[in-house]
Structures are given as C-alpha cells and as structure tokens.
Design brief:
single chain, 2 domains, alpha/beta, Flavin_mOase, five-stranded parallel beta sheet, membrane, FAD/NAD(P)-binding domain
Length: 554
C-alpha cells in the first residue's frame, strides 16, 4: 500500500517536499490556503493574516545559481539577483516540469493536525482542513510535512516603546509595507536594521523628506557584488573557504572580513558598527544603504528610548521632531497554531527539532518540519535537502536515532548555536550553510566526496572544491542522482554570465605571469588544507577506493 503524506504549504519548501515524496513513491497531498504557489514569494497588494508578505520592489539577495533546486537550473537569461516576480516564475516552471500542481489543493487551510487514537501503533495523523466554501473536511495521513515557514506572524513590540500610545502619526510593521507611495515628503523612522529595515529605509528615502534608521546593536553591511562584479556568494561560498573556516580561528576570520568591509565604507564613520563580530550573525546585505547614508537620505540612530507625541527620543538623548511615520522592522514570531502543543519540544529560545527537522519526542517519526531554518544561504536548496531526507525516513530507507539520542543532539545544537551565534527569541536558529547541507546530505547518502572525485574525476573535483557550493553538487551521486549534475556544475558560471551579454565587447586575452604564479601558490595552499581536512574527517569512500586500487593476490 502506498503511504500518504500531507504537505502543509505550497511555497518552495512545500513544492520540493511534494517532489521528494513522488521520487520515493509516496502519495502527497498539499494544502495551500491561497490561490497560487510561491508562499512568501507570491506578492499581494494587501497583506493577508497568518501569511508571509513582501513589498512590491523586493529582490532576492541570493544569486540565482545559489538558490535554485538541485536538478532544475534557473534559466540562463534570468538576472543573477531576481525580482520576486521572476522567482515566482521559476517556481511555476519547476512545478509544471515535475507535474506537482495536480497534488495541490488550493484555497484550503489546515485547521488542525492531531495524532490518531491508534498513533502508538500506526503513527498516523488526522488533518482537518477548511475549503474555500468554509466547509471542514477530515483526512487521514500516514505522515505530515509542515512547510508553513516563519515569516507569517509579525512581531510588534509596542510595550517596549514608551509613549507609543501618544504618537500622533502612523505606525505599522514592515509586514504591511508594500511601497513608498504613502511616504512622499514625510519624516520616517524605521526601527530595525535587518534586511527588510535596510531595504525600506533605502527605498523610502527616495521620496521621504528624511529617513532615520534606528538600531539597537548596529550591523555589518555587505554588498551583493564582489570582485570584478561577481555575485558575492558565488565568490566566497565555496568548499575551499569552508575548509579555511574549519582550520583558522573564527576571530581572525572576522577581523579579516571586517577589515575588507571597512575598506569599502568605515562602519564606525557610517555609524553602522555593531557590538558583535562579523560571523556571529547573518549580516545585512544591501548595496545602496551606505550610499544613502553618505548622501544624507538615511541617518543612522541608536535605539528608541521614548515617543512623545510626534517626537522620537533616542537613547543618546537626541530627538527627532515632527515624525510622520514609524515602521517597525522588528522581525517575526514563529508559531504552528494547527499543531498540538505537546508535539513541539522546546529547547532554549527555539523549537527543538532533531537536525532542525524532526520532533524528537514522537513515538513514530511520521512528522517533519521543512524550511524552518536560518543561514547565510537560500532556503530553497536547504529545504530540498531536508525533504529528501524526510521522505527517505518516511519510506523506511533511513532510521532515526532513539528519542533519547535525538533529545541529546537537540540540546547540543542549542548550546552550539548559543556559543557561535547571536540568537534571540526572534532568531532562535542559525546554522552554517555548507556544514548543514553536508550534514543532511550525509543522512541522505549524497554528500560529495572530495577524495573520490580527486581520483576519479579531477576536473569535477576542482570545480567542487574551488567553485560555489551549488545544490547540483548533491546530485552527483547517491539516491536521486541526476545525470545532468556534472554538466550543470561545469556551466554554472556560463549561466551567471549570460544576463550580461547585452552588448558585444572585446574580451581580454591571456593570463599574466603574476596571475599564473598566484594560481600556483593557491593550488599548493589548498592541497595542504585539503590534506589536513581529510586527516580530520577521513571519508569512508577513500578507504573503499584505495582497496579497489590495491592489487589482489590470487
């Protein structure tokens, strides 16, 4: 009998979960409360309760090669950093190509998910939904994948802002922001310097009389552009850089990164310098914010101390009068209101999930949360990797540890995050992108082995080591292997360059002696680093390969 799976949400996490179910021979039914796929990336002019919301101008800050699914490259002519409308187009292409739409029930909300009375024996779930006519339906499923995300419940901490009830202007959360049209000629205070706060401050400064950006901690601000105009993530999110992070002290790496950032714009001079180090939290990605500070359109201010009528008082004693609008870019709460409270285990500030996916206290591993993760990298490949693991567990190909072992692992992860990152109730979970992808890939059996590639496919080895850690690397081998993965890796920079080919220009020829010497020295460096890396984490495939290469006696 085919096992049935309920998938809650048809955003990118839900779409890749449907596909993973189909690949494993499971029968998915996806419930989506809106009338379209896309989740967060489906723009609507009016924000809808309990749903993620974006603004009209939103452009993703992850480049297309780093955000696409592992066996479906984004079209070459799409821009490297895409407007939300292009991202939604890509999701539609993906859904149509893999025939996912027929498994989605649109305008159907999930009201509750409960364990069946025989759960201890069957592990099954009862899912109650409400359709577009308001009629309730009950369904039975063998397993459930929750893909509801964590940007649906805006955090509006009004009690932390003394005098807000006396404010004479208008205030709202960034969740309600759609564009700067209503801010023309206004004096605007944006509270919060995350990516949304930075975007809104920059965009509103084009029409507002003055924008003030208030921050408690400050922030490191990086650009999407790197050397020679390459996308910054394709330049630095590589396995070689990841190896360096394993070998070198993180404080030294932070110092080096901060030095490079300050060479572009001194964070102290620009009043941006934070209280934390560069790699202790995800930085703000915004190319325009320093320019707006430089030209006076945006003024950075400390935390708000008090609001008096139309005046805003900051902690340094400065006052801004005649404020018309306050935008709270203060993050989001996370919640799973349709789940029973005893399903989700709490660990510190966060929902304690085994490897950020499985509730560790259930008798049967028949529920998973996909896409509930935070890293300096796109959610799409991370959710895809999670869903590939989840469906193999549901199918019975993989076994989870005991509940006790999972709980222990959850507590270790919580302590590790507290040690390495700045976490709070609003940002309770953060992982290193490459480490996490490799960890879950190891569970699936698709983690690429540098040692194996070195001996069997040296040209591919070079691209996997030196090139960006794109999702194609996790389709080279193992379950779900894709015959086009190697070619996709070899052509990823061609797709990156394609949108620039709008005017024919003469290209540089040849390579300088200095360039060749630099490449030679870097090759020697990576050889030593890789050898040390293999010494610390010897891959089992290397032992297997050497045994095959050793002559056998008759």
């Amino acid at each position: 009998m085919v096992r049935t799976v309920a998938v809650i949400g048809a955003g990118p996490s839900g779409l890749t979960s449907i596909k993973s179910c189909l690949e494993e021979g499971l029968e998915p039914t996806c419930f989506e409360s809106s009338d379209d796929i896309g989740g967060l990336w489906k723009f609507k002019e009016v924000s809808e309760p309990n749903r993620a919301s974006i603004y009209r101008s939103l452009t993703i800050n992850i480049s297309k090669e780093m955000m696409c699914f592992s066996d479906f490259p984004i079209p070459a002519d799409y821009p490297n950093y895409m407007h939300h409308s292009r991202i939604l187009q890509y999701f539609r292409l993906y859904a149509e190509h893999f025939k996912l739409l027929q498994h989605i029930r649109f305008q159907t909300s999930v009201r509750s998910v409960r364990q069946r009375p025989d759960f201890s024996h069957s592990g099954r779930w009862e899912v109650v939904t409400e359709n577009r006519e308001g009629q309730e339906e009950r369904h039975m499923f063998d397993s459930v994948i929750v893909c509801s995300g964590h940007y649906s419940y805006p955090h509006l901490p009004l009690k932390d802002f003394s005098g807000i009830e006396s404010f004479e202007g208008k205030y709202f959360h960034s969740w309600d922001y759609k564009g700067p049209e209503d801010l023309y000629g206004k004096r605007v205070v944006v509270i919060g310097i995350g990516n949304s706060g930075g975007d809104i401050a920059v965009e509103s400064s084009r029409v507002a009389k003055q924008v003030y950006l208030s921050t408690r901690r400050g922030a490191w601000v990086i650009r999407v552009l790197s050397d020679n105009g390459l996308p910054v993530d394709m330049k630095y999110n590589t396995r070689f850089v990841h190896i360096l992070f394993q070998l070198l002290p993180v404080n030294w790496l932070s110092w080096f990164g901060e030095k490079k950032l300050n060479a572009m714009y001194d964070h102290t001079m620009y009043a941006l310098k934070p209280k934390h180090r560069l790699f202790s939290t995800i930085p703000v990605i915004n190319d325009e914010l320093p320019n707006k500070i430089l030209t006076g359109g945006v003024m950075v201010k400390p935390n708000v101390q008090q609001i008096r009528g139309s005046s805003v008082v900051f902690e340094d004693g400065s006052v801004v009068d005649k404020v018309d609008v306050i935008v709270f870019a203060t993050g989001y709460n996370y919640d799973f209101p349709f789940l029973p409270s005893n399903v989700m285990h709490k660990s510190g500030h966060r929902v304690g999930l085994y490897k950020h996916v499985f509730p560790p206290t259930l008798e049967h591993p028949t529920m998973a949360v996909v896409g509930f993760i935070h890293a300096l990298g796109a959610i799409m490949p991370q959710a895809e990797m999670q869903s590939r693991w989840v469906t193999r567990v549901f199918k019975g190909h993989k076994k989870l540890p005991s509940n006790q072992a999972m709980l222990k692992a959850v507590e270790y992860d919580t302590k590790d995050m507290d040690k390495n990152y700045i976490v709070s109730k609003l940002v309770p979970l953060q992982v290193d992108f490459v480490s996490y992808m490799d960890d879950i890939a190891g569970e699936v059996g698709v983690r690429p082995s540098l040692a194996w590639l070195f001996f069997t496919d040296y040209p591919l080895f070079k691209r996997v080591l030196w090139g960006p850690v794109t999702a194609y690397q996790y389709r080279i081998t193992g379950p779900g292997k894709w015959s086009g993965a190697r070619q996709a890796i070899f052509t990823q920079f061609e797709r990156m360059f394609q949108p620039f080919k709008t005017r024919q220009v003469e290209e540089k020829q040849g390579c300088s002696v200095v360039g060749r010497l630099l490449k030679l020295s870097l090759t020697a460096m990576v050889g030593g680093a890789a050898a040390y890396y293999f010494h610390l984490q010897p891959p089992s495939s290397l032992t297997y390969l050497l045994s095959k290469l050793t002559p056998q006696r008759a």
